[in-house]
Amino acid sequence: MKFEYFNDTGREIGIHPATREHGTECDMSPIKHLEIRTFYLPDGTYPWVKMWDYEEERGGLCILVSPHIEDK
């Protein structure tokens, strides 16, 4: 599955390392303001998304995109 995220926060967003560890493929560089980032999840899954704000002095915004199995 392909999932696109549009960053309209006005800040850069770091990608949590667990995004890749959980099986999502993407460019792991920070997502710039007004950038669209594409995440590729394994077939048969949907994106579960969580964002944290660690404030600028502790790393800023961070996003996790984790694949979850669809219930049938």
Helix percent band: under 10%
Number of domains: 1
Note the overall shape: elongated
Count every helix, treating DSSP H or I runs of 4 or more residues as helices: 1
**Given the helix and strand composition, which structural class is it?**
mainly beta
Question: Tell me about the biggest sheet?
Answer: 3 strands, mixed
| Rg, Å, rounded | 12 Å
Mean pLDDT: 93
Euclidean distance between termini CA atoms:
17 Å
Number of strands: 5
General description of the model:
This protein is mainly beta and 72 residues long. The protein has one domain (2-69). It is 6% helix and 43% strand. It has one helix and five strands; from the N terminus they run E-E-H-E-E-E. The chain has one helix at 18-21; strands at residues 2-6, 13-15, 36-40, 45-53, 61-69. The strands form two sheets. It has a three-stranded mixed sheet with strand order 2-5-4. Strands 1-3 form a two-stranded antiparallel ribbon. The longest helix is centred in the first third of the chain and has 4 residues, at 18-21. The model has no long low-confidence stretch (mean pLDDT 93).
Descriptive key words:
72 residues, mainly beta, 3-stranded mixed sheet, 1 helix, 43% strand
